[in-house]
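Hey Z.,

So I finally got round to the beta-D-glucopyranose thing we talked about over coffee. Here's the setup:
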Amino acid sequence: MKTSTSILALATLASALPSQPVTKRACTSAVKLSGSENVFKSYTLHANSFYKAEVAEAVKNLSDKSLATAAAKVGDVGSFLWLDTIANIQKLKTELATDIPCKNVLGLVIYDLPGRDCAAKASNGELKVGEINRYKTEYIDVIAGILKANPNQAFALIIEPDSLPNLVTNIDETACQQSKSGYEEGVAYALKTLNLPNVVMYVDAGHGGWLGWNDNLKPGAEGLAKVYKAAGSPSQVRGISTNIAGWNAFDLSPGEFSKASDAQYNKAQNEKLYVELFGAALQTAGHPNHAIIDTGRNAVTGLREEWGHWCNVKGAGFGVRPTSTTGAELVDAFVWGKPGGESDGTSDTSATRYDSFCGNNDAFKPSPEAGEWNQVYFEELLKNAKPQF
Ligand code: BGC
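And the result:
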C-alpha cells in the first residue's frame, strides 16, 4: 500500500510540473487527410490557446461581472488562429507545444499576401506589392516546414481571405490592379506548397453579398479555378471558406437584403444559397466546391445599412458554435473564423489604416486597430449570442 501511495504522489507531482512537454493526447501516427473528405466529420476544431487567453483576460475585465460564467465558456469554442504576419508564425509554434488532442484539427488562417486588403485600408499588411519572394520564402515556406514537421497533427487552412474576390469586384481600383499578379501567384504558391497529407485547405470566396451577385458568380468561380489549376489542382483543396469575419445569416429566408432595390440581381440571399449557387459555378469551372462558413458573429441580422458593410457591425452576437451538422450537402462545417472580440479596423480617423467603413453609422466606435481586442464589443457579442452561452 505504501508503494502505491508514493507512486500516486509522484504521479501527482509529475502532472503538476510545468516544464514537461505535453504531448500525451496527440496522435501517435501520421494523419492522412484528403480533399475528398470532410475533415470536420472526424475532427473537432481546436480551441486554441491564444483565443483562450484573450477571453480569460476579458473575463477579468468584465464591466458586468454577472457575465463571468458565460464569458469564460467562449474560450472553449474552437476557432481559427490567424497567422497575419511573419512574426506571428511564432503563434503556430507556441500552439503546437501545447497539448492538442489527436481528434482536434488546428485551424489556421493564411493571411499575409503582398499588398493585402487592396480595396480597403483596415487590414493592409506588412508586405508591399512586389514582395512576392518574401511571401514565399519568409512566410509560406516557413509555415509549410512547420506543418511538415508535425505529421501527426491535422490542420485546416483558410487561404487568404478576401484576396481573390477583390480581384473580381474591385479591379477598377489601382491598388487591386497592382496586387493582382502577386495575389494569383501567392495563392497558387500557398496551395502548392501547403499541399501536405495532414492538411486540408479552403480558399476564401467572400460571401453571398459579394461574389453572389448574378454577374459575379461565373467570373468569381473562374478566378478561383485559374489559381487552383496554376497550383496543379492540389489534392488537399477541399473547397471554399465563406463569410469569414462576416455577418450573413446561414439560411434566413427571405434573406436579409431581399427587400433591397437591387435584390433581383442576387439570388444568394443567404450563405446557404450562396454555397449552392457559387458551388455550381465552381464545379463548372473545375474547382472543388465544399465549404466552411464563419458563424462566429452572425447571430443577429438586420444591423447593416448595406450588405457590403464589414467593419465592427454594431449589435452583433456570437453565432452557432463550430459543428459539422449543417444540414447542407456542400457545407462541411460552421466554424468560428474571426475570433469574436478582435476588431475589424480602427475607428480613429487619424490612423494610417483608418477606413471609412469603420466610421459608418452601423460600425461600433471606438474600435482599436484590426486584430486588437475590443472589450466592450466582446461583451456585446456575448449578450447578443444565439444560442446563449
Ligand atoms: C486583421 C488581422 C487579425 C484578424 C483576426 C484581420 O482583420 O487584419 O490582423 O489577425 O483580423 O482578428
